[in-house]
Amino acid sequence: MNFTFLNNLKNWQIFLMLAGIIFLVYSATLSFNIVYLDDNVLVTDSYSYNKDLSNIPGVFTEDIFRAPNQGGSYYRPILRTTFMLDAQFGEGLVIFMSHLDNLLLHIFAVCLLFGLLIKFGIKKETALWFSLIFGVHPLTAEIVAWIPGRNDSLLAVFAFPAIWFFLDLLETGKMRSYFWHLFFLAAALLTKETAVIVPVICFFYAVIFMGSKKIIANLTNYLYLLIGWLSFYLGWFLIRKAVLGSAVGNADYHIIPSIFQNLPSLVPAVGKIFLPFNLSVFPVLQDMTMVYGAIVLALLLIWLIFSRNKNYRLIFFGAAWFSLFILPTLIKPMDVLSDFNENRIYLPMLGFIFILLGMGRVKFVEFINKKTFAILALLLILAFSSITIYRNRYFEDKIAFWTNAVATSPSFAFNYNNLGAMYYLDGRYDLAEKEFKKALEINSQEKLPHNNLGLIYARRGDFEGAIKEYEAELKIHPYYTNALYNMGLAYWNIGKKDKAAQKWQETISVNPNYADAYNALIFYYQEKGDSKTAENYYSALKQTSF
Fold this sequence. Notes:
This protein has 27 helices and two strands. By secondary structure, the chain is mainly α. The radius of gyration is 26 Å and the shape is globular.
């Protein structure tokens, strides 16, 4: 088998090859539904808002989940804009277009990766093999098959050109490359917070590969870069703080303790990159195996010790790439059990391309020539493609997704509650009740299961039992407006209408945009014959954001 033809392929032929192979692996995802993990909030529930393109300026003034009163922790306006573009094709096609957009963004990101690897000086054939492996890697399934997973591929679409133009600036000194670098950096910052790492990666590249003499010789360019980076950091920081009310976010973040607490998650992350056999749609550290990561790290260490002609610059740069890009994923709220979604390994795992290229050759595997390497790479692509195609099915719909979440992260009560919620939506109330109770067995302080049990009891006509569940929910989750509103409905159904109205008033005092509570109060006061108060609530309803 001769693979020398790969070096003779034109770029458009390579891009077409990459696109075709990735499309074959992921084509089934185009028929997938939503899984009710952020996708319902961002895509289907927000369809009316997303459909109206006049709302685009508004996405730059709020959290991506449209949290009221400077709430939320995620300032990602460009990501939100992509969901708005998907909505332009109509409500009946919005889920299909969202999945198609995910697939196209991943293909585009992989093609940009190929170009970036070439810019780094990697040979075309080698760059192609690594791009293909990355394109079909099982860890990218969450990027393509789960609609909100596009966050990381969209980040790559901006981060890769930002780094490319940085390298071009170092080569040519052209100011055009400087401005394009800053343009793509700005776009990346408005896509995901992890983009703050891009200038740091560029800095490490300059230090590792250029050296102090070259930096001093071209000091003007580096000063321009430093000024540009600091200016963009400051601007982004101030805008984010103005929108969210906090530069970090509105959760219980303690950055340093969080990083140290979550450092062990790096071991299974490395294992998943090389041995992607124990993946989860919603992993937590308690249920992640360290075995594969330990094996991989041991083998890499042995390789490093016994290899010859090592390129330490590539190894250090690859280690810096992985460490820096994965660092933000370790920052989690301290008041909840941390999850480690695998889409967040998308950019960090590329650091191992540089590490592997810098490791050198080991005497007892010198039989691996170019042809053998190509055959091994092809076999790896086939193996990864098969695993990815199999894994895609876990993102097909809400039941498949949360069933896998429960199976692979059984210590996480959140997963059981969500599986119960999916059964509830499908009208399978007995199964739903079982999952809600299981969630409370694992964590008696878990938010939402009590409220959800209340819904089941209310549906059965046991309104007294429902009220007890809502009260239990509010002890755990005092300002949960759904529980307040639902308790009002339960009181109404047992004839305690004044108590019902009191709960609905509490609901809108917590969330002034809770439309159902306004409608319930309007009906309550109309029934009482108090048309003036009913009209006041109607006027307030018209002024809400929803």
